[in-house]
């Protein structure tokens, strides 16, 4: 009875309340829609990014899957360089020997291997080279005196730093 | 959601990992390596270097190249450990005003926390570059024996590096986490950690999601580097015996020998003999000299046997001695053994540990990475505290449709994340078939009748055509609420029919379990049935094809070929509906060989009727 009275007495207010209620519902629905849309967009973006990552991962894999093999092969190339150096000491070396070395290097080049250039007299750079000796010399301290083993890069990755002798400067 | 990284801040090497999609993975450094040397240096050009770059310049700059700072962090200068290390560290250390340690690098004195922060900073930057997002939080591991001061100092190092340290966890606990051992109840675990420069042994007890450290032991100055040194010394000695030349003074020769020694050590983990082959290692007055030496696994083991035995004694003591020296357990009480550190790849170590405990140690996760991965698992748990808004369900069982012979042909495999959809084209099994029945089933059995039927409906009005010609597209679509819609449409007429199934995913747990168990139980039997049906289907197709070919070829086929084919067709018809798989297969093969002659005779007639080179009809069937 009480309620009925209320209703008949305050119809205007009730209507207002209704509108407010509808407004609230709409706002809630809009917020939900926005949340869902953003969730959907996020999921879609995640998926697209995942696909891109997969492609990239696969490319990386294709590029670097032979890295271990190439690293071991570099050891052979090192020995070859030492052999040539030893032969050169005894006089001129048969041209064919150099040609074999070039053959090996070309095979590795085709698979993305490049030599890292380290010049004698340049400043020591640990990003591309590793110091294995530190010795007295007339050159200023920190200068590369000699490259003992070449450094190599496989595509963008340094797979072996050059091994260098570094000057300590003049000993006092 | 920002990611939390897991960091193994080691004495010689560090590693960083992150959990993505529930799986921990190592993040490579900017130089492309999976671990980073824990070394910091101030170069001559006043540039701060961390990681591999600091290592490469170490010999040109020993006073300003800081390594093993983990041995100093959080300790008092007067600590006997610090005093012992002071003697061999190449850089200067002194007491700080508060009694701690300070390290000199360049012109400045740093706290060990600051040096560690440089390493952590590099790991953070590299992780950010790999992940392409900002990292602000981390879980860092420390040895189980670290005291409060050492833990606090490690935490401070993280904060200095700009990382909020969500948790400091023990390295052995992290290793156990990586193997998922935190879920086990009341287990006793031994973690045997043989790193580059330290040997740690920890005894853990797991119960109700807590991990308690019962005892720790080891030797802070025993590691894989000692192994390398022994091998190297042996090689230098052997060479002196062989050639009378001491190569330990030749820096290039020594470098090559060092690498060869490491390589030999690694190789002898998988093979029993290796050859150290270093041409032109040096030269004397007579010319170039080479190094060629066979090294066996047993030689290696005899070289380092004492070190291994020492580690086993320490392990025994840490497990069995009474508290506080040990855990006071019997060796037989230990449930799990975890191996950590690269040196544990050595078979002799695995054998020795196995012999001590009488059971196989856990392997499988890279021992250099297991601690960082475990830290990432912990980070993932912390990350998971924030609930993901969107939870996606999976279909618990395979959804399939019934095809010729009653086979359940899967449309959506079990454990597929929903929402998803899939469609496939099917055809008719008989000539002039004008309707197809779509029977949707759920379950893992090979035959539709053994699975649960979800719906059956008929698509009619298919245009009459020989079998195999009509194209009926069947599509399955499950929405996020697990409601499955199945639609079949005839591509030629465009007629379609569909059905909605509300209850495709809400089977009870018991029901799902039962269906899965049935599938496993009947797997072999189902496979045989399916094979039989497939053979029967093939036989039917062949009978159909043979009869059609005979009709099409008409008089072009000689009577004897016709008779032979008809005979074989009848033979196949006779066996195809029985359950003898072998008989069906044999009759099918015989017919298959026979009908080739139809084509051959048609071809030969066109060609002038030569029958030369024709194979004899296959007599047996």
Q: What is the helix fraction of residues of chain A, given as a range?
A: 55-70%
Largest sheet of chain A: 3 strands, antiparallel
Number of helical segments with 4 or more residues of chain B = 14
General form of chain A: elongated
- Structural class call of chain A reads alpha+beta
Radius of gyration of chain A: 36 Å
Major sheet size, sense and barrel closure of chain B? 6 strands, mixed
**Oligomeric state of the chains?**
heterodimer
- Biggest protein-protein interface? A-B, 29 and 26 residues
Uncertain runs of chain B with pLDDT below 50, 5 residues or more? 385-389, 608-621
> What would the average pLDDT of chain B be, to the nearest integer?
87
Percentage beta strand of chain B: 25-35%
Distance between the termini of chain B: 69 Å
Structural class of chain B: alpha+beta
Describe the structure.
The complex is a heterodimer of chains A (172) and B (621). Chain A has 172 residues and is an alpha+beta fold. Residues 1-7 of chain A have low confidence and may be disordered. Chain A contains 4 helices and 6 strands. In chain A, the strands form 2 sheets. Chain A has a 3-stranded antiparallel sheet with strand order 1-4-5. In chain A, strands 2-6-3 form a 3-stranded mixed sheet, with no helix packed on it. Chain B has helices at 52-56, 80-86, 112-131, 148-160, 171-178, 224-243, 251-267, 297-320, 347-357, 370-383, 509-521, 523-553, 559-576, 581-607; strands at residues 4-8, 13-20, 23-26, 36-37, 40-42, 48-50, 65-66, 93-95, 101-105, 108-110, 137-142, 164-170, 187-194, 199-207, 210-219, 273-284, 287-296, 336-340, 399-403, 407-412, 420-426, 436-442, 452-459, 472-478, 484-490, 496-501. In chain B, the strands form 7 sheets. In chain B, strands 1, 2, 3, 4, 11 and 12 form a 6-stranded mixed sheet that branches. Chain B has 14 helices and 26 strands. In chain B, a hairpin with a 2-residue loop joins β2 and β3 (23-26). The model of chain B is unreliable at 385-389 and 608-621 (pLDDT under 50). Chain B has 621 residues and is of the alpha+beta class. Chain A binds chain B through residues 35, 39, 43, 78-79, 82-83, 85-86, 124, 126-127, 129-134, 141-142, 148-149, 157-158, 161, 163, 165-166, 168, and chain B through 31-32, 43-45, 49, 53-60, 251-252, 255-256, 278-280, 283, 287-288, 389-390.
